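Obj: model holo form, ligand = guanosine-5'-diphosphate.
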Amino acid sequence: MDLVKKLFQGDERSAARLISLIEEGSSEGFEAIRLIYPHVGSAQKIGITGSPGAGKSTLTGKLAAILMDEGRHIGVIAVDPSSPEGGGALLGDRVRMGEADKTGRVFIRSMAHRGYPGGIAKAAIGATYILEGLGKDTIIVESIGAGQAEIQISVLCDTIVTVVTSGYGDEIQLMKTGLIEIGDIIVVNKADKPGAQEVVQDISIHFSNTEKNGWKIPVVAVSSLTGEGFETLKNNISRHFDFLKHADNYIDKKREHLETLMLSLLKEEIWDRTMNMLNGSEEFKLILDGLKEKRIDPYEAVRRTSEIAFKHKILV
Ligand code: GDP
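Output (holo structure tokens):
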């Protein structure tokens, strides 16, 4: 396939085109993945999660710029959960990541998060393969951490960096959300503002007895504006990658992650097909009317809806 041949030669336009094909669900895109897949799998994947406004994009830009200066080839995938379906590349992220993008040597792609609740964009997984095919040795996936999205990003990436800020006020509340639990490294961003050290202390106490399979979670204060703390962050990311690679169960874990990843893709596929079919269904509309008017209980509504789905043979 011509696009794949060009991709392997380092052609960015082909990479962009292939990612679009995957986003569109085109069979040409999936055929390309079949060709690319045997050649990829060794790039380092870093996931950046955190609440909106925590500074993920700014931090991603800074980190990408620093790693690039070391001679690494960086690809960035930014998943925007709030953007409308089919939003494509979002200018906003490009602007915010300006620092890394200026050189043109970092490939940045934003993708819209489509309908399915609780997953990073389905296409983000394929995009990591495509970027590696393009020759990127380090791929940063930026995604808001929310619910099950975190699970997918943690099986897709080697190291998860969770970004929090000193502006939260009630850090205990933050911990209760579970947002920082998936992090392999916790970053307290905006350390140029007051209060960052207190947050570092609170979170460090919270994690003082916690280990992730033998990994002690570091808490690092950084400023994505000034660059303070990035050396420590970078060192911790490579320390974690080394830690993973030298773990006894490294291969088993990788295999387990592939299974989890595939099952979440399957879930999304079934959801997409079901919703596409139900969208135009008169029968489904009647069920919803019954539900809203309390004539049908929610369980019965699900049972009847499933019947429609089976009748339409959504999986054949
Ligand atoms: P995201 O929604 O998590 O991607 O957050 P952004 O990267 O868009 O950042 C949100 C706002 O915080 C922007 O106005 C940034 O300029 C600002 N910001 C990001 N990092 C820092 C930082 O380290 N210090 C300060 N003072 N502001 C920051």
